[in-house]
Amino acid sequence: MNLDHPVASSLLPVVLLIGIGFVAGRLKLIRGEAVRDLSNLVFLVLVQALLFRSMATAHLERLDLTSVALYYVVAGAMFFALLFMRGLNSRSAVLALASIFSNTLMIGVPLVQLAYGEAALVNLFTLISMHALVLLTLATIVIELLVAREQAAAGQAAPRHIALTVAQAVKNAVLHPVPLPIIAGFLYSLTGWGLAPVVERPLKLLGDAFGPVALVLVGVTLAQTAIGRHLKGALVISALKTVVHPLLMWAAGRALGLSGLPLTVMVVAAALPVGANVFLFSQRYHKAEDLVTASVAVSTVMAVGTVSVVMGLLTRV
Fold first, then answer.
1. Whole-number Å distance between alpha carbons of 225 and 232
2. 270 domain residue, yes or no
C-alpha cells in the first residue's frame, strides 16, 4: 500500500496509536484500575476544551446547515432502526450509536483535506460543528429514557410519569459532558468577543491531546479485552458503520438529486470508522464496553480498505 495515499496516511496513525496503547496495556504500563481515571480525564477535561474552543471560535455565519441536514436524517433513521431491531434497551442504544458515529475529526479532516482539498473542508467542518451536539445529544436523551425505564422495571427507582421522565432525560442530556461545552461555546461565540490567546492556547493544547490520548486508551482497554469473544459482533458493527452507513447516505443523496462535492463529503464521512467518543460514551454508561472497544479498533483497520473502495466508487458515479 502506498503510505502517501490519503486513506493510508490518515488511518495508519490511528491504528498505530491504538497499537501503542495495546502494547502499554499488555506490558502493564497502565494498570486496569487507571483506565477509568484516564477515561474521566479524556471525557471530563480534554473533550470539554476541544468542544468549547471549536464552537467558541467557529464562524457560525459561514455554516451551510442545509448541506448536512440529510446526513443527520439518515444517521437518525439508521440509529432508531437498529435500536428497534436490537431491542429497546440502553445497551442497544450504545451499539446503535457505534454504528452511526464517525471519527470525523482525527481521520475525517486529514483524509478529506488530502483527497479533496480546502473546498471540501468547508462541508466537513459544517458537519463536525454539529456532529457531537446532534448525535450524542440524541443518544443521551434516548439512553437516559431507557435507563430510567430499566431502573423502574428493576425496582431501583419509582416509576414516573412519561413527561417527568422525558424532562429528566432532557435535563441529563443538556447537563452532560458533551452537549454542555458545545452549547456554552455556541452562546459565547454569539458575543463576538473571541478568545484571548492566554485562554485559547491552553484550550487548544488540551483539545489537541484528546484524540491521541483517547485512541491510546482504546488500545489499553483492548489489551484487557478478550477480543476473540467480541470479534463477530465487532465485525457486524464495523460493516454497518463503514459499508451500510455510506451506502444509505449515497442512496438518499442521489434520491434527492444531490451530486458533486457535497454528496461526496457526506458519503466519505459516513464511511469513516467508529469514533472514539462512542468508546467513552459506553464507559460512562457501563454498557457494552468491551464490544465497543473492539468495534473502534476493528472498524479502523477495516476502513483502510472500505474507505478506499468508497472513494474509488465515488469517482465513477
1. 14
2. yes
d(CA 287, CA 95): 9
* Cell 443538556, located at residue: 174
Q: Do the domain assignments include residue 1? A: no
The residues near 185 (Cβ < 8 Å, ≥ 6 apart) are: 51, 52, 53, 54, 55, 56, 58
CB 299 within 8 Å of CB 215: no
Contact 105, 211 (CB under 8 A): yes
d(CA 277, CA 42): 10
**Domain total in the chain:** 1
Residue 275's CATH number: 1.20.1530.20
Q: Domain span at residue 117?
A: 6-314
pLDDT in tens, 116-144: 876 777 678 778 767 777 887 788 888 87
The pair phi, psi for residue 49, each rounded to 5°, is -65, -40
Residue 86 is which amino acid?
Answer: R
* Band of residue 291 on the pLDDT scale cut at 50, 70, 90: very high
- CB atoms closer than 10 angstroms to residue 23: 14
Query: So what's the pLDDT on residue 60?
Result: 62
| Mean pLDDT over the full length of the chain | 82
What band does 302 get if pLDDT is binned at 50, 70 and 90? confident
Query: Which pLDDT value is given to residue 4?
Result: 65
Domain membership of residue 185 (yes or no) is yes
- Among 119, 101, 62, smallest CA distance to 240 is for 101
